[in-house]
Write a structure and sequence with these properties.
4-stranded antiparallel beta sheet; 10 helices; 7-stranded mixed beta sheet; Rossmann fold; alpha/beta; 16 strands; 2 domains; Alpha-Beta Plaits
């Protein structure tokens, strides 16, 4: 399948009105490219392993619209056949009308043709098996080699939204979990994503795990990865919601229940999370945190101590930090 891509250079402040205007002439589903920083709420809702620093906002935005190209070269917009030239005239006319009462920036238009792509699976070409110490992490589309027989093997298909375990912060957590997990461990994994930390904890011998995440897609990712690793459904319970602010989720997770709480998120999320999570920990329970860039180490340690926990260990890998504490 082929698509015509119409790309408009504008300014971030004009994104909404341009999208609304062009929607009315049949251009739907705009792809937005800009450098506008995420809001505090957007950052909180992401709960990703690591949120990279973005480029400085220059106010410029690009809007991309895609229209399917038929076999005869025609386009169909609002149920009617048209062609590229006619559609472009309409787009240019709408942009010129908008200029009369608002700033839309440069407003230049470029047109390109693109092939249909399997975006859901295209990322797989970049993810291959790798090792975390003596653990082999391998996706479903690769085979375990003979020389890896006998290793701990973690089968992970992270999908497009979740991590693979390659990041330093995940590896810091894995090493700490290995130290503290026992056959009696009840574990809570906050921001579980693809479930790597909880699944490995169960493979290390933990009794039971609960995972929480804001992204509804995490539930399916966890279910698939549990199945791939032979983890019985009753061993890993998944909950969707914000444990920091949602009392219903806090109640469902349970209080004074967990021997270990692990959170590989971000320092800015760990600070409000820590005083909440102390209620979920049993006395003597271990709190393992990561996702902390080195200049945020003291911020997290202060939050841990302010919540009444004792810092027992700080570990490092690259520029990343893991803080382990005890209730």
């Amino acid at each position: 399948m082929k698509w015509i891509k119409i790309r408009i250079k504008t300014i971030a402040e004009a994104e909404d009105i341009l999208i609304s205007t062009l929607y009315d002439i049949g251009l739907e589903g705009a792809q937005i490219e800009d450098k506008v920083p995420l809001t505090a709420l957007e950052k909180e809702q992401m709960f990703v392993d690591i949120l990279p620093e973005g480029p400085e906002n220059d106010g410029i935005a690009y809007l991309n619209f895609f229209v399917e190209k038929k076999e005869d070269g025609s386009l169909e917009v609002l149920g009617e056949r048209t062609d590229v030239e006619t559609l472009l005239r309409r787009v240019k006319g709408e942009l010129e009308d908008l200029r009369q009462f608002c700033d839309i920036g440069e407003g230049s238009i470029t047109v390109d043709e693109t092939e249909d792509v399997d975006w859901i699976n295209n990322w797989k070409q970049y993810f291959h098996q790798f090792y975390i110490d003596d653990i082999l992490v391998i996706p479903s589309w690769e085979d375990v080699k003979a020389e890896d027989t006998g290793r701990t093997v973690l089968h992970i298909d992270p999908g497009t939204a979740f991590g693979t375990g390659m990041h330093e912060t995940t590896q810091l957590c894995i090493r700490q979990l290995r130290k503290y997990v026992t056959p009696e461990t009840e574990l809570l994994d906050v921001g579980t994503g693809s479930g790597i930390l909880a699944i490995l904890s169960l493979m290390f011998g933990a009794k039971h795990a609960v995972g929480t995440d804001l992204d509804v897609c995490a539930a399916e990712a966890v279910a698939q990865n549990c199945k791939a690793n032979g983890i019985a459904p009753e061993k890993f319970e998944m909950m969707i919601g914000n444990i920091i602010s949602d009392k219903e989720i806090q109640d469902k997770v349970g209080y004074s229940r967990y021997d270990i709480v692990v959170a590989n998120i971000l320092a800015d999320v760990l600070v409000p999370l820590t005083p909440v999570i102390t209620a979920q920990l049993r006395p003597g329970g271990i709190y393992i945190t990561s996702g902390i860039i080195d200049d945020k180490e003291e911020t997290v340690k202060e939050a841990v101590r302010a919540a009444g926990l004792d810092v027992v260990e700080v570990t490092y890998q690259g520029e990343w930090v893991s803080v382990t504490a005890r209730k």
